[in-house]
phosphoenolpyruvate--glycerone phosphotransferase
Amino acid sequence: MKKLINKPEDVVREALAGMAAVHADLINVDIEQQIIVRRDAPIKNKVGVISGGGSGHEPMHGGYVGYGMLDAACPGAVFTSPVPDQMLAATRAVNGGAGVLHIVKNYTGDVMNFEMAAELAAAEDIEVVSVVTNDDVAVQDSLYTAGRRGVGVTVLLEKIVGALAETGAPLAQVAELARQVNNQGRSMGMALTSCTVPAAGKPTFELGEDEMEIGIGIHGEPGRRRAKLATAAEITETLTNPIVDDLRLKAGEQVLAMVNGMGGTPLIELYIVFNELERILKGKSISITRSLVGNYITSLEMAGCSITLVRLNDEFVKYWDAPVHTPALRWGR
Amino acid sequence: MKKLINKPEDVVREALAGMAAVHADLINVDIEQQIIVRRDAPIKNKVGVISGGGSGHEPMHGGYVGYGMLDAACPGAVFTSPVPDQMLAATRAVNGGAGVLHIVKNYTGDVMNFEMAAELAAAEDIEVVSVVTNDDVAVQDSLYTAGRRGVGVTVLLEKIVGALAETGAPLAQVAELARQVNNQGRSMGMALTSCTVPAAGKPTFELGEDEMEIGIGIHGEPGRRRAKLATAAEITETLTNPIVDDLRLKAGEQVLAMVNGMGGTPLIELYIVFNELERILKGKSISITRSLVGNYITSLEMAGCSITLVRLNDEFVKYWDAPVHTPALRWGR
């Protein structure tokens, strides 16, 4: 196992310590409890927005804590859901009296634990609404999930919804916008290589030298099918068409497009995929008017990429363009 | 060769096309000539700042073109110097009448070609000053270089010097600041894995399952030594101590620290390395007061990291903190 780590059991704790040191201007990190909280939380009368999930997907979610996006994130062990106590602590920490939105990726463990945390928070009279993301068109059910998995749209949703929350909008409105973004977004991913969970010490799955996995999940869950290696043009087509079909995107529509690296893929390749994506969508008269290319929701050192499209409307654009200042996304301030 | 590409010979052209599409608000890309120019160039009476080098190190340098950093970048083929004609075209495109600074990493091909471009520009009455970066403490001479290689400090220098150029400072002053940053900066890198140049189709070098290369260059040039895998703590110590010694950093001094991923290393590991770096420097009473953690000067999909330290003074801090708006670095606007 070739990793820049010390002991596997210390990976999350030490990475959080590093993150706390690098981004001390933006976040407070409770390393023992594993929660990352915006420095100025709780903000009075502002809806608190939190998310969480297994570690190993950095910069998600901790990298999105800050002005205009998340108020807190709770990372679990690598590829393992955080526990309800963490989520409850994060909920308390960001409750400014206007309630708290839980953004939950649709993985069985995450959903169950966030539900429990919401109940515990309710018992303390903190109003919580949960929105579950389920944008992965690759498979209906999978190893860790009933229904579609929540993947790339989560990042884009956190940005858009975080901007609305920053305006002081009420919880019901913030939650409704989250549901709308999820409804208008779809994703699909693929892997050229597997990844190795530090505690396991060996690759999650095996892929031949001339093979790739289409429709992979972000924990290395099996996808739609294993296939022979193909060109960037073919791979991009394979990922894009199911998204366009499922979203029923039509000529003349505008999208926010994310080409996301899985952690081990260099930026030069992601730009090539974006070039193909633009060509394909142009052929369908669909315009990419906002975009994001880079490593945003990763699977450790896995090589591969995912594509996420969100159908845009004026409201989404307005909140996408609004200022954000987090460790991983920053513009407008 | 597992890559998200089409034909190896189209990699740079297609990646540039993708980059142009993603960042059309910031840059103009001449895909045939392979130059990336700031949209508002040339800026009258502002020193033009350009850099260039082989592709495969993204986001360097094209990702640093924009307000407060570079005015243009010329990417060569993968791991291959751009040609003088490209550099001359970039120099012309950014010449606003106040002259042009060439920032050149110390690799034999880059130095030779930038020298030729400067002569051609001089023949057109464009004043050019070149500053060569040579911050890599790992080896004195290497496969592609006489003297020390120019690596991570180049990124930090481009940010600091670009901010000064933005104020309208004259060429001599901009060049002098570039020399000062280079003098105060040192780097060292290591690799856990090799990388594969698309046109070659096989790894640049071989590393055993339990081996790493210490002091690697950004093209996979051999480093100081091959060693058995070690912990993040040991690796960070191995990279940091030669930098601190060479810079003669003393207790009480402040540094800008970059922990850079080589392209295939996940962010969670880079934060662990940063945590170790902070611990080591704290032990020497050296403070990290500015920092950057992520993939900034890469070697395709190589796994590994490099550390760069720049001794800070008030001037460096002022220009580091100044607004920047490029594809890869953005703050303050």
The first helix of chain A runs from residue 11 to 22.
